[in-house]
Each structure stands twice: as structure tokens, then as C-alpha cells.
What we know:
It is found in: Cytoplasm. It is a single chain. The protein has helices at 2-31, 57-71, 89-94, 99-123, 145-153, 171-181, 215-221, 228-236, 251-256, and strands spanning 37-42, 76-81, 128-132, 141-142, 157-161, 186-191, 196-197, 209-210, 212-214, 241-245, 263-266. The protein is an alpha/beta fold. The chain folds into two domains: 1-31; 35-266, 3-Layer(aba) Sandwich (Carbamate kinase), CATH 3.40.1160. Strands 4-3-5-2-1-6-10-11-9 form a nine-stranded mixed sheet, sandwiched between helices. It has a two-stranded antiparallel sheet with strand order 7-8. Strand 1, helix 2 and strand 2 (76-81) form a beta-alpha-beta unit. Helix 2 (57-71) packs across helix 4 (99-123) and helix 6 packs parallel to helix 8. The termini are far apart. The chain binds uridine-5'-diphosphate. Uridine-5'-diphosphate binds next to helix 3, helix 4 and helix 6.
Amino acid sequence: MLFLVNHISLTTFLITSTTSIFFIIFALQTQNMHYKRILLKLSGEALMGDQQYGIDPVRLKEYAEEIKQITEKGVEVAIVIGGGNIFRGLSGASSGMDRVQGDHMGMLATVINGLALQSALENEEVPTRLQSAININEVAEPFIRRKAIRHLEKGRVVIFGGGTGNPYFTTDSAAVLRAIEISADVILKGTRVDGIYTSDPEKDKLATKFDFISFEDVLQKGLKVMDTTAFTLSQENELPIIVFDMNTKGNLLKVVSGEKIGTKVNL
Ligand code: UDP
């Protein structure tokens, strides 16, 4: 009897201590990270890689690897993905299509990109859920805020597809909206440029980069970070934005670790 009691308490002790060690390691890993919950905004065009259209599988895999790195550090990752590599409502409208119809096509394009990213992440063994703002239940979960937060808490990457679910908006607006809803610490806008410059660095050789800039200065100087609706929503909700080069390996990890790369827009 005494042996049995000892055995039970030893087992309990082992389970408790193993669990505690696991949580301590996890907590230590997360502690090193500057941001605990992030919203990563990827444009559809970024997925094209060097192609003119569609999805470049090499680029997609690279992104999945980058995202995996930060989930392994315990960072909670939500992603909003654009659709510009497939369809933009505005360009549809300029060629005579009804704008709302075109925007619906654009929103569906973001779901296609979301599915591709989900697949790439799952190939890297990263648990992922795709939530869509438009009902498409056979393909993606509907967007339910509490459920999204629960997925994040369980260490799943949540991809938000379908933009805001409304025409006349962009996925930048969707990114800010979702970031606020899930109480993300920051929006990371992954681009092919390494930050915000005084003018377009791809056109102007004399352009200089900002390390930090206030929301007000961005507006005053007329710099393009996001469309005005998205940008103002971020400003009003005091949600910082970091613009950084997503195409350089290791950059995403550096940003979430608090390294000063890219440009941070703050109050
Ligand atoms: N879109 C929309 N409502 C939204 C988000 C997107 O109607 O809330 C449509 C719009 O037509 C847009 C397209 O989806 O042009 C693709 O999104 P976006 O242009 O933001 O993609 P990105 O530039 O990030 O690739």
C-alpha cells in the first residue's frame, strides 16, 4: 500500500515537474520576443516572386519557413494576405467591370492565396487555420473573433482571408481591423522595400529611410504606408505598424525579437 502511494506521488511529481519545465522553457522562449501576438500583412504581389502573375511556390515556401521560425519562439501569428497577384477590383472597374463585382473577385483571390499559404505552412508542420470574411464554409472557417483568438492561444497560425468582407476596402484595412480585433501588439507589413523612405527608393536614388516616424508625420509628408482608411484606423487605435523587407531571410524573426530593422510608425 505504502509502495503504491509512493509510486503515485512519484508519478505525480514527475508529471508536474516535466510540465513545469516545459512551461518554463516556453515562457523563456517567448520572453526573448519583443512582440507576443503579431499580425503579419503580406501583399498578394509578394507571393508572385519573380513571376508576373499568380503564386511562386519557392517564395511561398520561403515565407512559410520564416513564419515557422517565429511560431517556434512562441509568438502568436495572425496573417492577412492580399490578392493583387490574382485580381484587383479597381483594375477590373477600369476595364469596364462593375466595381463591386470586381471587388468580390479580389476578395476571392485573397482566399485562394490564403489556401496556398495554409498549404505551405502545413508542409512545414505549422498548424494553421484559415478564416474567411465571406461565407465559404466548405473551404474555410467563417471569421469568428473569439475562435481566432483561441486558435492563436493554442499556437495555431490564423490566416484571415476575404479581406473585410466588403467591397471598396483593401486588405490593408482588413489587416488593421483584424489586428485590433485580436489585440495584436503590432502590424508587420512585409514588403520588398526595407522601410519607409522620404520618396520611392526604387525611383529616387537620394531617398533616405526613416527608422521611426509618427503617424502624423506620415500624413503631413504625404508618404504612402497604407491606404488612408487603413492608416487612420491604425492611428486612432494606437496600433504601431512596422514596414520591413520580408524577402530577406531571418528578417521576420529579427523584427519580432525587437531588432531595429525596417521603419516603425508609432504615435
Ligand atoms: N478587397 C475588397 N475588400 C476588402 C479587401 C479586398 O473588396 O476588404 C478586394 C479589392 O478588389 C482588392 C482585392 O480584393 O483590390 C485584393 O486586395 P488588395 O488590393 O488589398 O491586395 P494586395 O494589394 O495586398 O495584394
